[in-house]
Amino acid sequence: MTTVGYGDFYPMTYLGRSIGVTACYLGTFLISLAIVSLTISLEFEPTQARAYKNAIRYHQKSLNRKYAATLIQACYKYRFYMSKNHDVSLRTKAEKTYFIKKAIKNFKDQRLRIREMEFTLRTDEMYQQINDKINSDFDKLVIDSKVITNCEELFRLVEKKQNNISAMVNEIMEIGEEARLKIDDFKDEQFIDQYL
Predict the structure, then answer these.
(1) Sign of CA dihedral 158, 161, 165, 170
(2) CB-based contact 67:107 (threshold 8 Å)
(3) At 29, which helix (H) or strand (E)?
(4) 41-83, pLDDT tens digit by residue?
């Protein structure tokens, strides 16, 4: 595994031993890289995995149809045999019903395998859907947080402008009050001048 041999030859000097240790680590590293790359190359891509699962599902369902047809044939053969032969011994009945029981067992086992496979496939698909939903929700949250940040900045700007506007309105109100007082003073002076 470390690619340095069996130990029949080994270094004696410190330099040789340090080179040997380095070779051990390097060999282990290179072997692990080869194993990882091989594992990655042998894994299915998501579309290939989906196609493989669909092929397995189709194969299992075709087996189920085959076992169902065998069961129906066994029941029909039993019924046909019993309608032709009225005096049948218990042993013959047991032999004929054995095939029906075997067909029922095969059919039930196949149905159970299909249910287990579909449950496994559903859970895998469910996990994938949950993962996709989490990723999309996270992306929406990131976008929403950016929008909220932009809105907060806009609210701050609006608040500053509103404060500026209210200050201007207060100044205008003060100027208007001063103008009204001056107009009142002017009217009073005019009134006094007129009657004096």
Answers:
(1) positive
(2) yes
(3) helix 14-42
(4) 888 887 888 888 888 888 888 888 898 898 888 888 888 888 8
CA distance 80 to 84: 6
Sign of CA dihedral 53, 59, 65, 68: negative
Answer yes or no: are the C-beta atoms of 1 and 31 closer than 8 Å: yes
Q: Report pLDDT for 3.
A: 63
Interval 142-192: pLDDT, tens:
888 888 888 889 899 999 999 999 999 999 999 989 888 888 888 777 766
Which residue in 106, 115, 110, 97 sits closest to 70, CA to CA? 106
The residues, any chain, with a CB within 8 Å of residue 96's CB and separated by 6 or more, are 77, 78, 81, 82
Closest to 149 (Cα-Cα) out of 141, 159, 138: 141
What is d(CA 165, CA 173) in angstroms, rounded to the nearest whole number?
12
Radius of gyration of the chain, Cα coordinates, nearest whole angstrom: 45
- The one-letter amino acid code at 178 reads E
φ, ψ dihedrals at 2, nearest 5°: -90, 0
pTM metric for this prediction: 0.42
